[in-house]
Specification:
Chain B: Belongs to the bacterial solute-binding protein 5 family. Chain B: Keywords: Signal, Transport. Chain B: One of its GO terms (cellular component) is periplasmic space. The complex is a heterodimer of chains A (314) and B (553). Chain A is mainly α. Chain A folds into 2 domains: 64 residues, no CATH class; 226 residues, Orthogonal Bundle (MetI-like fold), CATH 1.10.3720. Helices cover 75% and strands 0% of the residues of chain A. Chain B contains 16 helices and 22 strands. Chain B folds into 3 domains: 109 residues, Dipeptide-binding Protein, Domain 1 (Dipeptide-binding Protein, domain 1, Alpha-Beta Complex); 94 residues, Periplasmic binding protein-like II (D-Maltodextrin-Binding Protein, domain 2, 3-Layer(aba) Sandwich); 224 residues, Dipeptide-binding Protein, domain 3 (Roll). In chain B, helix 10 packs antiparallel against helix 12 and helix 15 runs antiparallel to helix 16. With 553 residues, chain B is α+β, with helices and mostly antiparallel strands. Classes of the chains: A mainly alpha (314), B alpha+beta (553). At the A-B interface, helix 2, helix 3, helix 5, helix 6 and helix 7 of A face helix 1, strand 10, helix 6, helix 13 and strand 20 of B.
Chain lengths: 314, 553
């Protein structure tokens, strides 16, 4: 089932990215007074762009089956896997950390706002998370940079390491990196609190109205037990699905976010590859994304079964 | 809720203090360190320190013939040398070549190479390296965009270990400067596939700086070459830091994260006035090697009539564009050269803003507003056209908007269309499906303009995309590139500029100023027609002002 799906995904992606006007060779030679059209013809031959599209696709597919992602069309001509490999760790680190923080913050606040629905707390939290949702990333980032970076001088403004990173001890390296990650993580997290906390809140509201909660209360259980044990477990079930769906997202980065903090991650790589029509890199990232999506779905299905005995029976 | 926020805030504050303190301590120690050495005479050139330059883009390939982006070239210019180069006044001088002879007929150039040059790995540099570089350039397997000049070479020969000779079929004036390309180490590359060479990520050259490390998307670090044949550079380390967002870069500059960046006109004029920046930084200003123009598609019926092109030129107030778009930091372009070049002619027809004259010319050409809707017509057709420009260049967009308003005043309706770069080239420029476009050209230091203006260069992939064809210009272009005498070439280029000003295939708009800002501890920077980096190896920081002092050397 997975293989036809993968071939379908790659075929469609391959056609779509080749449909976009412009070729990698145009960008390297056009508007360069010293580039002759002969040079351009040579470049096209080197990259195999002179062959018909289906031949190009089959060539690509043949290589990918052997796990050879090819070499980038950009002037560096590096292996696609190398280019992805050097950028993936930081993107995954940031994404996992921010996902973790988002879960840690939004589930409790979602549950609490459900428990105290329409209270002052609920209203303030609603305002807070929606403000985070609405504030443009780059604007918030710039304000933080000006305040913590320039005026106060407490935090580094951009990048991942200090200039003297190499000379630091392991512990210092860890703190150096942590210091660089505070602002990016705050910005990444703040904007994403809204959806999950709202999700947790509405699920909780639904569960609280169920008969078994009334039963639990009438048994005389303490409120903490009712909410914490009986309601929470049921309310969190759908959250597991969300977790599964966020797996493919782990390798994707936001271009705006990475650009403003000068973090060399996957978002930038993908964006630059699209702009330069660097087909092998684009395809490489899409294939990895597709595989991760499928794995994510699988994980979601399995963990659902683990968490909910009712599903296992069916 | 309040409790929660307070806890969160508390955690953030604790973290900040923890990290903030460690940083402050380091700073204090650094200051103490500096205090010790302050007794050394202040202001004297001294070795040491690091300069950190901010760049929007990362390099792509550090073999300069394969990459064509400016970031890569900025690095490779420090790592490699050519046989010759332009000096600060844009006169050719020798680098790896001590001297050269040009034969009477102008067909043969003999380079006498320096004998005291070594590659960064210690191997001596010889004429074989030059030969190897030449062969690489003409090899069809090398994906280079710069082979054009070298395909004109008829014969290249290694005369002896330190003499290299090239012969051309026809005299070719830009030949000499074409040998300013970086010379590659033959002992590391010969017989290998250059596209897969490790030199692309860790170059080895003969230049003033040695490659140290490259962290993709983060930084490239170079170290001074202590045995550089023109003398050891004063600054020990050069860091090229990649910060893709210009607003972030500016904040980094203010916070001390970088020492050197190019400012936008707005930043130069309005945002760098406070006393702290004035004290810590020096701003420089020189004419950049580029101009912006409005080009007409000369295949379009509307623009065939010269009077129309002139009228549009009279309608555009160039100074207004400079004030509005560049905040006054630029000069009016009246041809394809900048005023401080020898090929620049001042005596060409100029088109100061004059809407009356524009209206007259349009009327003469038969465009009149009969239905009084504010738009001119001729033969039942309204005078409307679209100005095309590429996405991502805010200055071009603003320029188009100001032009749009001015043209509306005389009854020409203009639409603006902004297209992403790759699509822009493929769909509009190659196919010549445009009416007018706003673009810019780099101004090459050698004034040869053959590729942009010759009538044979109007093909779909070529640079004369407006299809300008003028027999006299063709003749002059060829004459000028086949003559070595600068005086003679000057006459030809003067005539070309006169014809271009007369014919107005482009409305030449402006030459922006380059606006670097550099930390004031760096001394010895002297702006010249060539810019500021020509004497980079002579920049220095007096010992007492050095910021990055390395402990172990």
């Amino acid at each position: 089932m997975m293989f036809p799906l993968l071939i379908g995904i790659t075929l469609i992606s391959f056609i779509v990215i080749h449909l976009a006007p412009g070729e990698p060779t145009d960008l390297q030679t056009q508007f360069n007074p010293k580039a002759s059209s002969l040079a351009k013809q040579r470049l096209r031959e080197i990259y195999g762009l002179d062959k018909p599209l289906h031949v190009q696709y089959l060539m690509w597919l043949k290589r990918i089956v052997l796990l050879d992602f090819g070499r980038s069309f950009s002037p560096d001509n590096r292996k696609v896997l190398d280019k992805i490999k050097e950028r993936i760790p930081i993107t995954i680190t940031i994404n996992i950390l921010s996902l973790f923080i988002i879960f840690c913050i939004s589930i409790p606040i979602g549950v609490l706002s459900a428990r105290f629905q329409y209270s002052f707390f609920d209203k303030v939290i609603t305002l807070f998370v929606f403000a985070g949702f609405a504030i443009p990333t780059f604007w918030l980032a710039l304000l933080l940079m000006i305040f913590f970076g320039v005026n106060m001088g407490w935090l580094p403004i951009s990048g991942l390491h200090s200039m003297n990173y190499q000379e630091l001890s392991l512990l210092e390296k860890f703190f150096d990196m942590a210091k660089h990650l505070i602002m990016p993580l705050f910005v990444a997290t703040f904007g994403d609190l809204a959806s999950l906390s709202r999700y947790a809140r509405s699920n909780m509201l639904e569960v609280i109205r169920q008969d078994y909660i009334t039963t639990a209360r009438s048994k005389g259980l303490s409120e903490t037990k009712v909410i914490g044990k009986h309601a929470l477990r049921n309310a969190l079930l759908p959250v597991v699905t969300i977790l599964g769906f966020s797996i493919p997202g782990l390798i994707g980065g936001s271009v705006i976010f990475e650009t403003i903090f000068a973090i060399p991650g996957m978002g930038q790589l993908f964006y630059m590859s699209v702009m330069a029509r660097d087909y092998p890199v684009i395809m490489g990232i899409l294939v990895i994304g597709a595989v991760l999506t499928m794995i994510g779905n699988l994980v979601a299905d399995i963990s659902y079964a683990v968490a909910d005995p009712r599903i296992r029976l069916g | 809720m309040r409790g929660f926020v307070r806890v969160l805030f508390g955690i953030i504050l604790i973290l900040i203090f923890a990290f903030g303190c460690s940083q402050k301590k380091a700073k204090e120690e650094g200051e103490k360190e500096r205090g010790k050495t302050i007794s050394a005479s202040a202001g004297e050139p001294a070795y040491g320190d690091t300069i950190i330059e901010g760049s929007i883009g990362d390099a792509s390939n550090l073999i300069p013939h394969i990459s064509s982006d400016s970031a890569s070239h900025e690095i490779t210019d420090l790592v490699y040398n050519g046989l010759v180069r332009y000096n600060k006044d844009l006169v050719i001088e020798g680098v790896l070549a001590d001297s050269w002879d040009i034969s009477e007929d102008g067909l043969t150039i003999t380079f006498h190479l320096r004998k005291d040059v070594k590659w960064h790995d210690g191997v001596p540099f010889t004429a074989d390296d030059v030969m190897f570089t030449y062969k690489t350039m003409i090899d069809p397997k090398t994906p280079t965009a710069y082979s054009g000049d070298f395909l004109l070479v008829k014969k290249a020969e290694v005369v002896d270990k330190h003499t290299f000779r090239v012969t051309y079929n026809k005299p070719f004036a830009p030949a000499l400067i074409s040998w300013s390309i970086g010379i590659l180490p033959s002992h590391l590359l010969a017989g290998k596939d250059i596209t897969k060479s490790s030199l692309a990520r860790s170059p080895i050259g003969t230049g003033p700086y040695k490659f140290k490390e490259w962290k993709t998307g983060e930084k490239i670090v170079l170290e001074s070459n202590r045995y550089y044949f023109e003398g050891r550079p004063y600054i020990d380390k050069y860091v090229y830091r990649i910060i893709p967002d210009s607003a972030t870069m500016f904040l980094e500059l203010k916070a001390g994260g970088i020492d050197w960046m190019g400012l936008t006109p707005l930043q130069h004029k309005r945002q760098t006035d406070d006393s702290k920046i004035k004290k810590n930084f020096n701003k420089f200003k020189y004419l950049s090697f580029s101009y912006t123009y409005l080009g007409f598609n000369l295949l379009d019926q509307k623009f065939k009539d010269k009077r129309i092109r002139e009228a549009i030129n009279y309608t555009i107030d160039k100074q207004e564009l400079i004030d509005g778009v560049l905040m006054g930091l630029g000069v009016v372009a009246d041809g394809p050269y900048k005023p401080d070049m020898w090929a620049y002619s001042q005596n060409v027809k100029k088109y100061p803003y004059n809407s009356e004259k524009a209206r007259e010319l349009l009327k003469e050409a038969g465009w009149v507003d009969k239905d009084r809707d504010g738009i001119l017509e001729k033969g039942g057709k309204k005078f409307e056209f679209t100005i095309l420009t590429n996405q991502g260049n805010d200055m071009r967009k603003k320029t188009a908007e100001i032009i749009q308003r001015r043209l509306k005043d005389v009854g020409i309706s203009v639409k603006i269309r902004i297209v992403e770069w790759a699509a822009f080239l493929k769909e509009f420029v190659h196919t010549k499906k445009f009416e007018a476009l706003i673009l810019g050209w780099n101004i090459p230091q050698d004034p040869d303009l053959y590729d942009v203006w010759h009538s044979s260069k109007t093909g779909p992939d070529e640079l004369n995309h407006i299809s300008f064809k003028n027999a006299e210009v063709d003749r002059l272009l060829i004459k000028a590139r086949e003559t070595f005498s600068q005086e003679e070439r000057k006459n030809y280029y003067f005539k070309i500029q006169e014809i271009l000003a007369e014919e107005q295939p482009y409305v030449f708009l402006y030459i922006p100023e380059a606006l670097p800002i550099i930390h004031s501890r760096f001394r010895g920077i002297k702006p010249a027609p060539a810019g500021i980096t020509y004497n980079f190896i002579k920049w220095y920081v007096p010992r007492s002002d050095q910021k990055y002092v390395e402990t172990a050397q």
